[in-house]
Specification:
This protein is of the alpha/beta class. It contains 3 helices and 8 strands. Helices cover 26% and strands 35% of the residues. The chain binds zinc ion.
């Protein structure tokens, strides 16, 4: 019987955004969210009774979190609201996304984190009999409104 194990770690970050292509006037204004990101990794069999060490998963996901945390997600990398006049100040505070919806953010997170999980999978090659251990990024769920609205992306 095929089966899989999975583990999920939860991360949080805050950022501001502004949607351009939307019929909702409220979303056209700059505003912020406290996001919750649930990252689920799966495998076909355990090694050391683990899917992945939570500390390793944290190290894999942290660069993405740091790239968006306390940033302005904006289609305009020359966004002036954070400009203080010294060179490059705002460049460090803008995360450029054409349309910074939760769907866009979760897709960027998935692409970035799945590459690191693939690297982990290659480095951690192990066998049980003739079966190769596989580890993959199964799902990322991004809560834009805690406990009321989320989007998710899954490996197919
Ligand atoms: Zn919003």
């Amino acid at each position: 019987m095929d089966r899989e194990f999975s583990c999920t770690k939860i991360f949080r970050f805050c950022c501001a955004h502004q949607l351009v292509n939307t019929s909702t006037e409220k979303c056209k204004s700059q505003h912020g969210h406290s996001y919750k990101l649930e990252v689920t990794v799966a495998c076909n069999f355990l090694i050391n009774e683990m899917v992945i060490d939570f500390t390793i998963l944290k190290n894999i996901v942290t660069p993405f979190i740091e790239s968006v945390d306390h940033k302005m997600l904006s289609p305009n990398s020359n966004h002036v609201i954070f400009q203080e006049g010294n060179n490059g100040f705002y460049e460090n505070h803008i995360f450029p996304i054409i349309q910074p919806t939760a769907e866009s953010i979760v897709e960027i997170a998935f692409n970035s984190i799945s590459k690191q999980i693939e690297k982990f999978d290659e480095e951690e090659t192990k066998f049980s009999g003739s079966m190769r251990r596989r580890t993959w990024l199964k799902r990322i769920k991004l809560w834009e409104e805690i406990d009321s609205a989320f989007v998710e992306i899954e490996a197919k």
